[in-house]
From TrEMBL:
SUPFAM superfamilies: Chorismate lyase-like (SSF64288)
Annotated transmembrane regions: none
Protein name: Probable chorismate pyruvate-lyase
Primary gene name: ubiC
Keywords annotated in UniProt: Cytoplasm, Lyase, Pyruvate, Ubiquinone biosynthesis
């Protein structure tokens, strides 16, 4: 039982439940597209695709996706980079049972931001945000650390990571986006549009 609990997180509807540092709370609760917000805090924004392939959905995702058990999904994982610094590890899953017409742009996204396809489509309904504090043993914390390590950035196993997730619906399809906020996001400052 303990092993299972290490792989799951408690997901809350209110951000206060995860007791995030103030500098992260504003990112966790920001409305609209995260991509757009990150672009406003950087001269250069980039999506580094880590993989997009068939996978098993995580233990604490099946219920959120509306699938009755941890079934097979299309999984996309990326690092979002501001001025080449990784600031978000994002994990998106779509049940394999989804019809191709539910998410027509998902499979061919490449290094374009998923957000640009979700927020521009009037057929997409966005659910409420949920928040979690991920222990080092959570699969997404492990993967975020591994992605950073592959880019020469060390993150201690014991470092708690704060995440949010949101379920999107389009036609009969569901798509679950989880964003794990990396420590360096707290150092971002808005870019002033006018140059003095
Ligand atoms: C949902 C959005 O798309 C972002 C881009 C993602 C991608 O390209 O895989 C994944 C999660 C998001 O942080 C957004 O911009 O809000």
């Amino acid at each position: 039982m303990r092993e299972r609990s290490l792989r799951r997180a408690n997901w809350y509807r209110h951000v206060l439940a995860v007791n995030a540092p103030a500098a992260l709370a504003c990112w966790l609760t920001a409305g609209g597209s995260l991509t757009a917000r990150l672009k406003a805090h950087a001269d250069a924004f980039r999506v580094q695709v880590l993989h997009q392939h068939a996978a098993q959905c995580l233990a604490d995702e099946a219920a959120a996706l509306g699938t009755h058990r941890a079934g097979r999904v299309w999984e996309r994982e990326v690092l979002l980079r501001c001025d080449n610094t990784p600031v978000v590890f994002a994990h998106t899953v779509v049940p394999m049972s989804a019809d191709a017409s539910d998410w027509p742009l998902f499979s061919a996204l490449g290094d374009r931001s998923l957000g640009t396809t979700l927020f521009g489509d009037p057929m997409v309904a966005r659910g409420p945000l949920e928040y979690a504090r991920l222990r080092g043993s959570h699969p997404l914390a492990r993967r975020a650390r591994a992605a950073l390590s592959a880019n020469g950035i060390a993150l201690p196993d014991e470092r708690l990571l704060y995440a949010r997730r949101c379920l999107y619906r389009r036609r009969q399809g569901t798509l679950l986006v989880t964003e794990v906020f990396l420590p360096r996001v707290a150092a971002l400052v808005p870019k002033t549009s006018n140059t003095r």
